[in-house]
Design goal:
Elements: H1 35-47, H2 55-62, H3 70-85, E1 101-108, E2 119-126, E3 129-137, H4 145-169, E4 179-182
Parallel strand pairs: 1-4
Antiparallel strand pairs: 1-2, 2-3
Helix pairs in contact: 1-2
Length: 188
């Protein structure tokens, strides 16, 4: 993927996206041939299976597959430079980890500059091992941060119930409630 992107220098990035970067469909100039952009984004989507740290930014750049522009391509190259600098990052599953399930949920209220929809994000741990994660744009526009957080919690709760069912099916039962953490006081 690095060679296909044409990155031959040794430059790496410490973050996959610039701080407060808001990509819109009209940023930059249109790409003459979007084939490389689509191939690279497709490869990054595949990479998110083992690299949840890039899931959100890959979600952002994948929104521009139909009409990518130069700024979107620059963002993809930055993600690849970040991956290049963090090749040995990934998921770690410990054999000695406890079998206690816990989750974290968050949302960014109206953060998409194009349609003002929020993005839901959640992750679940089994002991210290990351088990499930998701970053997805919400289907409706929320009127408040509380509403946005509630929607994120609802999605996380659905995943939590499925994970508890799956774990019970594998013989790992949970007799107590599962902790689902949220940072929004109003939603709590």
């Amino acid at each position: 993927m690095i060679s296909r992107a044409g990155i031959t220098d040794s430059k790496t990035e410490s973050t996959p996206l610039e701080l407060n970067c808001k990509l819109t469909p009209l940023d930059g100039t249109p790409l003459e041939d979007a084939t490389l952009y689509r191939q690279l984004v497709g490869s990054l989507v595949y990479l998110t299976v083992t690299r949840p740290d890039i899931a959100y930014v890959v979600h952002i750049v994948s929104q521009f597959m139909s009409a990518p522009r130069s700024s979107h391509f620059s963002a993809v190259l930055r993600i690849i430079r970040y991956v290049k600098g963090t090749l040995f990052h990934g998921l770690h599953f410990s054999a000695n980890s406890s079998l206690v399930l816990s989750g974290y949920s968050d949302a960014d209220w109206a953060a998409d500059p194009t349609d003002r929809r929020s993005t839901t994000g959640y992750c679940f741990f089994l002991g210290s091992s990351l088990l499930s994660w998701r970053s997805k744009k919400q289907t409706v526009v929320s009127r408040s941060s509380t509403e946005s957080e509630y929607r994120a919690l609802a999605d996380a709760t659905a995943e939590l119930l499925w994970l508890r069912w799956l774990l019970a099916d594998m013989g790992v039962t949970h007799s107590s409630a599962t902790m689902l953490h949220c940072d929004n006081r109003s939603a709590i």
